[in-house]
C-alpha cells in the first residue's frame, strides 16, 4: 500500500502552496497549525477546514473545486514524480499485490497513473474521498485491503507524514516511513514504525520482513 503525496510524488509543498494562496485570495487567515492539520484529510474534510478554521469565504464545495482545479493545472505538465518511485513500485509488484491509498482526489491519482504507466501493476487505487474519513482514520487503508481481497494485518503501508503513519498503524498494517523532509513526522510515531532512509530501500525491507509477522 503506497501513499501518493510525499511518497511517490513530491507534492506536499505544492498542496501547501496552492491551499495557502487560495485561502489568502478568498479572505482566509492561515494558522500556524493549518499545514499539518490538513495532511491526510480527504478533500471534503480539508475544504470544510479551510472554511470553518481558516475563514475562507466560500462554501466547502467551492473551495474543493477551486483548489483541485489549481492542482490539476500544476499537474498538466506531469505530476512531480519522485526519482526512482516508478521503479520501486514495479519492483515491489513483482512479488506483491500493489495498491495506492491516498488522500489526493481521484483526478490526481489518475493523472499520476497515466503519467507513469503504473496502472498495469497497481491493482487498487483509492482516494480517501471514496472511503469515508481521511487520514489519520484507517478507512482508506482498510478499504484498499478489502478490495485487494486480503486482511489488513497482512499488508504493508508506506507513508511519509504523521497522519498517514497513524492511519496505517490504526489499520493494523506493517508500516514503513520515508519521512517527509519538509514536514517531519513526530518522533514518537516514527518509533512505532520501520524508518527507511529512502524509498529505494523498500524492496529489500519487504524481502526481509513479511507483513503480519
Automatic annotation (TrEMBL):
GO molecular function: hydrolase activity
InterPro entries in alphabetical order: HAD-like_sf, HAD-SF_hydro_IA, HAD_sf, PGP-like_dom2
Keyword Lipid metabolism listed: no
Protein name, UniProt field: HAD superfamily hydrolase (TIGR01509 family)
Keyword tags: Hydrolase
A Pfam family of this chain: Hydrolase
Origin superkingdom: Bacteria
